[in-house]
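Progress note, sequence design subtask.
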């Protein structure tokens, strides 16, 4: 099982009492089985009781370990990956952002998108698409990763500016690190690229505000 060692270490530190109860039960059960095995005659019911005890102990151990894993996951740092979709394709991707609480997911995703758009608001669908959290190995150990997909309803201004700068429709990946965010442009294709071209053409068609 993935992360078994980390969960077991956590359980030994934080849940020693339930573990001690399980160990005492296991020792008592072994003594009963040994007594039955050494007896000249053992009834069927005695052996059935012993087998039932083994199954009960196994179920109790599985439940204990499951609860220990849930408690361990709650202690892990939370990270957010926000993917912003235009015409069904990723155009902004933010990874590694610190998420203090699961209830802050939507607000943090909006804040990160605004930062990637140069401090300007994004226009997006009210329906967010969060994915079930999973455990991943980060630079400092296991992390709990949350991922959300956000559908944009209007081309962000930053995409038009990036396209003008790079000479082709360009998206932006932002990776949060301990030394600060690192931004990496990437080329857009398909419907998202076309949406950026249309927005750029619309901007060029606007009358200039320069009186000269």
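Output:
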């Amino acid at each position: 099982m993935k992360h078994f060692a980390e969960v077991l270490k956590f359980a030994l530190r934080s849940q020693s009492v339930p573990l001690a109860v399980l160990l005492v039960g296991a020792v008592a059960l072994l003594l009963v089985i040994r007594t039955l095995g050494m007896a000249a005659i053992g009834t069927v019911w005695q052996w059935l009781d012993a087998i039932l005890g083994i199954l009960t102990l196994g179920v109790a151990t599985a439940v204990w370990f499951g609860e220990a894993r849930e408690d361990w996951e709650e202690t892990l740092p939370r990270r957010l990956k926000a993917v912003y979709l235009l015409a069904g394709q990723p155009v902004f991707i933010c990874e590694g952002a610190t998420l203090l609480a699961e209830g802050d997911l939507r607000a943090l995703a909006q804040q990160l998108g605004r930062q990637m758009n140069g401090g300007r608001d994004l226009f997006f669908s009210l329906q967010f698409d969060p994915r079930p959290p999973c455990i991943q190995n980060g630079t400092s150990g296991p992390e709990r990763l949350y991922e959300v997909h956000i559908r944009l309803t209007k081309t962000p201004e930053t995409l038009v500016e990036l396209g003008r700068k790079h000479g082709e429709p360009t998206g932006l990946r932002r990776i949060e690190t301990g030394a600060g965010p690192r931004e990496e442009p990437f080329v857009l294709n398909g419907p998202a690229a076309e949406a950026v071209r249309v927005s750029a053409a619309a901007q060029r068609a606007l009358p200039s505000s320069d009186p000269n």
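The mean pLDDT is 80. Work on this subtask will continue into the next period as scheduled.
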